[in-house]
Amino acid sequence: MEILVTGGAGYIGSHTCVALLKEGHKVVVADNLCNSKAETIDKIEQITGKVVTFYEIDVTREKDLDSVFAKHHLDGAIHFAGLKAVGESKKKPLEYYYNNVVSTIVLAKMCQRYKVNRFVFSSSATVYGENEIPFIETMKLLPTTNPYGETKVISERILMDMQKANPEFAVSLLRYFNPIGAHESGLIGESPNGIPNNLMPYITQVAKGKLEKLRVFGNDYPTIDGTGVRDYVHVMDLAEGHVLALENLTEGVQVYNLGTGQGTSVLQLIRAFEEANNIKVPFVMAERRSGDIAEFYADTSKAKRELGFTAKRSILEMCKDAWRFEKDFK
Ligand code: NAD
Ligand code: WQD
Q1: Active-site choice (55, 128, 148, 176)
Q2: Which end of the chain, N or C, is surrounded by fewer C-beta atoms within 10 Å?
Q3: Start and end of every NAD-dependent epimerase/dehydratase domain (predicted)?
Q4: 2-180+232-261+299-306: CATH class
């Protein structure tokens, strides 16, 4: 299949391009590089030995996206493009709503116009809000605590309504848990701008000496050791999940959790990183971060049953691969 990957130069998008090309699909990337670099496209080509067609465009701009659809015979689209920093979304809500929601509308509109009926969307476990664990797809969604999370809830609803009006349309809403790690080549990985918000990039930058020490946000949660628990999933497992979702699309809307089903605490992740890479990660205990939930992880049974998806890579591999990328290639 020939697949449009919006946000394909970004962290999860670039790994998914690798997985798609490996499975013999053709890839067309549309990315405005607001949080990524064009050289990532070259790295994807280097890893796979295949060609990637790249358009530096903003997918909220209908005319620009229309010209991409006009040039290709696309079979499907995977929509990664979006802004993703939770804290920033509270300071710049309009930017987040505009970019994330309008990009979804414009892309869906182009799919309708050009009869591209396969659509995979990057959603997030954040849509569950502070729900019972494990999070399962059938749960009633609870409010998220930030505009970023709301853009995912709204985009999911828009795609569901669009599908109802266009029954030939097949949509997969993928709710990611916490993607970490990098491609085993060390050529592509996560490189956030500025000081990282997320745990693993913070750990790797402390290990490298770029940042002095990690602050562990809260050690009084009702969890195994008092620190926050998350379901960390290797980004290549996540990438392979997209290929499965795309290849198994059926008419209608399907929702899938993509995670491992296992919770890991902040302290457990620090220890795993130290053990995997034989390096110290200095840390201090700090106040809880506002908006954080104590613990969540995925019920993964639906993705396993319907897509044959199981995350294969261990926490130690996630830590090794994240460190290889940080250490050697930046
Ligand atoms: P990322 O920032 O690395 O990638 C997003 C890409 O989209 C970037 O390359 C950016 O330049 C591009 N982009 C943003 N707005 C655009 C626009 N209007 N037009 C064209 N390109 C645009 O982020 P990521 O971690 O790879 O996340 C990909 C998707 O997955 C996002 O939608 C994000 O919300 C979602 N998601 C991420 C996580 C996570 O923890 N990383 C978890 C759940 C969901
Ligand atoms: C993980 C754990 C922190 C940094 C966020 C978004 C979510 C999704 C993934 C997009 C928590 C603790 C962190 C630090 C710490 N993104 N932590 N010190 O908050 O689960 O999810 O990214 O959809 O929507 O909210 O991930 O990596 O920020 O935090 O102690 O410097 O690490 O408190 O327990 P989170 P995270």
Answers
A1: 148
A2: C
A3: 3-259
A4: alpha beta
